[in-house]
Design goal:
mainly alpha, two-stranded antiparallel ribbon
Length: about 290
């Protein structure tokens, strides 16, 4: 029964043209970034190195490789993808209410919990397919266009060089972590969708929540940094970067297979999971108690 419902929900999602807007937007953005780096990549490297350029003893041509381009794309795009996820997840329940089909759905011999879980599971499948599409274009596409070499990670306090043989698993882990973060966004939009009668409201509300939380997180106000930012799910969505911060030897050589702060990444993963369960739980319970009049 559940699998049949899941197939029906996936059919509903992928028959709508708006679903493919996200896939198209990601493809266009990635191709534009790859084209820009192909044309003016040297200037981009000098911009990122900034004052460290004079002391950086590494051949610039080797920096511009597929791994560096993919890392740059992840830094640039992952902050925007939540908006594309909200576009679908915010429509799952509110869209049915708007079309007048929600009342018909709850008259069928299935529990409301099963109905809601099948809808949320469909949004999870959508998120996974979106990240897979992004991984194919950003990682495989960049490797095809720029080749592979060591990955140079430029940080505010310096830079780290990760050997090429130690890079690929970090991208797989980063995409996996990003999937967890976007599922949290999908759960938020899904929960808000339960309280709305059309999809515009939950989509806009999700985007507003993400923007406000991101601003609070980025404002260098001590009060916000101490009492608010550590508890916002948007703060922990950046946990994927931890896979690219590695431990180093006293000679400043990166240690293969290491990560600088694994506990922080585990903590971020747990926080995102708890937020997802909270949003999903509130959504399911509210839907069970909801009087459906349309």
């Amino acid at each position: 029964m559940f699998l049949n419902l899941l197939r029906i929900e996936l059919y509903k999602i992928f028959r709508k043209p708006r679903t493919y807007i996200a896939f198209g937007a990601i493809a266009v953005m990635i191709l534009l970034i790859q084209f820009a780096i192909k044309v003016q990549g040297k200037e981009l490297i000098q911009f990122f190195l900034g004052s460290q350029d004079a002391t950086f003893e590494y051949e610039e041509g080797k920096i511009l490789n597929g791994y560096f381009v993919c890392f740059f794309i992840l830094n640039t795009l992952l902050i925007h993808v939540p908006l594309l996820v909200a576009l679908i997840a915010g429509d799952l329940v509110a869209g049915e209410a708007n079309m007048g089909t929600l009342r018909l759905l709850v008259t069928k011999p299935i529990s409301r919990e099963t109905l809601m879980l099948s809808k949320f599971s469909a949004s999870v499948v959508y998120v996974m397919m979106l990240l897979l599409w992004m991984a194919v274009l950003a990682l495989l596409g960049s490797i095809f266009l720029f080749g592979t070499n060591d990955l140079v990670v430029i940080k505010e306090t310096g830079f780290q060089i990760i050997q090429s043989s130690d890079v690929l698993w970090r991208f797989f882990a980063a995409f996996g972590f990003a999937t967890l973060a976007l599922i949290c966004i999908a759960a938020l939009a899904f929960m808000l969708s339960v309280f709305a009668e059309n999809s515009i409201g939950p989509i806009v509300a999700t985007v507003c929540v993400v923007i406000v939380f991101t601003i609070i997180q980025q404002l260098q106000v001590p009060m916000f940094q101490e009492y608010a930012a550590p508890y916002l799910f948007t703060t922990h969505m950046l946990g994927w970067k931890g896979f690219f911060y590695v431990m180093a030897t006293p000679e400043n050589q990166s240690i293969p297979g290491s990560v600088e702060n694994p506990w922080a990444m585990v903590k971020s993963g747990l926080v995102l999971t708890l937020y997802t369960l909270l949003f999903l739980g509130v959504g399911v319970i509210s839907f069970k108690r909801k009087d459906i009049l349309s």
